[in-house]
Amino acid sequence: MADKLDLKHRWSIGHNHMSGITAGKWWQLLRDVNFDVDAVYAHRVAFISLLSLNNSLWAAIEKMRYQKKIDQVERVHPPVFVLGHWRSGTTHLHNLFCQDVEQFAYPNTYQAINPYTFLSTENINTRLFGWLLPKTRPMDNMAMSFSEPQEDELGLSMVCLRSLYFGITFPRLEKHFSQYLTFDNAEPQAREDFKQALAWFVRKLTLKYDKPIVIKSPSHTARIKLLLELYPDARFVHIHRNPYEVFLSSQKYHDTATWYTYLQRPDRNFLDDEILRRYVMLFDGFFAGRDLIPDGQFHEMSFCELEAAPLETMRNTYNALGLSGFSKAEPRLKNYISSLKNYKKNDHPELSAHFRQRVAENWGRSFDTWGYER
């Protein structure tokens, strides 16, 4: 168990994915976990509680202003889902897609963390509070701002309270919240709650942009069947990466970003086991759902090929999915790729023989399917 002195970023109240939750949902979540929060994080509970009151006020205003219009959104363009395990390059791929602003829209960071209020508050709050965000993410050197593309899962978690990510916030309940990765063993109502939350969020983004939404959440990699039930014409792009690199990068992520969100003391002794188990769960869901995707709606790539030839890889992706407009997007893609020339990836230590063996044994299907050397 992490000692009091070992709690990194203990006093931080930033980087918390629940900053946009409403008071009612916050109270419901606390009841669901039997108010099992640790005193060392009481200041975070107080901070979220204060924010939730303000969020509830603005959520009521937004509902009064926009709910009828959201309900009247009749046509939702088939989304594009970016799939892949955490730390596999999904953010990079998502950012590349989102350069095509003429054809696509996407949830940005502000919208993802303020799902209830962004139609009313985004314009003013991004100007007032943009300085509060660091320039880069804590787990890597990727750019971070309110306008950057972001995971929809952050917003969905606050809307339906059915998310794997609460297993990070409440690590003693990690196994409970892990059922919301695939929803295969969750109660039917939980599955419906999630589907309704996603459909509502996409309609809300459609009201704002009236374009196909490019959605990225690694968790969606395990939910293809569920996503097809909502959007049978959706397109899916999957990116995979060398499993050894994914494991090392996942360790880095959990040693940096997760410390900002804990409301319970973490027990880091079982972290590596959780990383191994979650990977298997995610790809069990992925392989079970992949063959359900109709022809022409799925494309796959490796992180290595995207990194080595991003423009050509994106061109191939457009062609494979029957997407038009690449020539119009190409100048912006070139400018974005050029802006990354000084980007420096994280340096990871050499993976020990012990963990190389464990990764190879547990994640063997990925090595075999995509031809990575053990």
What does this structure look like?
The chain has a single domain, classed as Rossmann fold (3-Layer(aba) Sandwich). It has 17 helices and four strands. The model has no long low-confidence stretch (mean pLDDT 92). The protein is mainly alpha-helical and 374 residues long. Helices cover 51% and strands 5% of the residues.
Largest sheet: 4 strands, parallel
Number of strands: 4
* CATH fold assignment: Rossmann fold
Note poorly predicted spans. Answer: none
**CATH-wise, what's the superfamily?**
P-loop containing nucleotide triphosphate hydrolases
**Coarse shape:** globular
- Strand content of the residues, in percent? under 5%
End-to-end CA span:
33 Å
Question: What is the chain-wise order of helices and strands?
Answer: HHEHHHHHHHEHEHHEHHHHH
Q: Please count the helical segments.
A: 17
Task: Walk across the major sheet and give the strand order.
Answer: 2-1-3-4
Helix content: 40-55%
Write out key terms for the chains shown:
374 residues; mainly alpha; Rossmann fold; 4-stranded parallel beta sheet; 17 helices; 4 strands
Question: What's this, in brief?
Answer:
The protein is mainly α and 374 residues long. It has 17 helices and four strands. Helix 6 packs across helix 9.
Question: What is the fold's blueprint, element by element?
Answer:
Elements: H1 23-32, H2 42-71, E1 80-83, H3 90-97, H4 109-113, H5 118-129, H6 152-160, H7 166-169, H8 174-177, H9 188-209, E2 214-216, H10 224-230, E3 235-240, H11 243-254, H12 271-290, E4 298-302, H13 303-308, H14 310-321, H15 326-339, H16 353-362, H17 364-370
Parallel strand pairs: 1-2, 1-3, 3-4
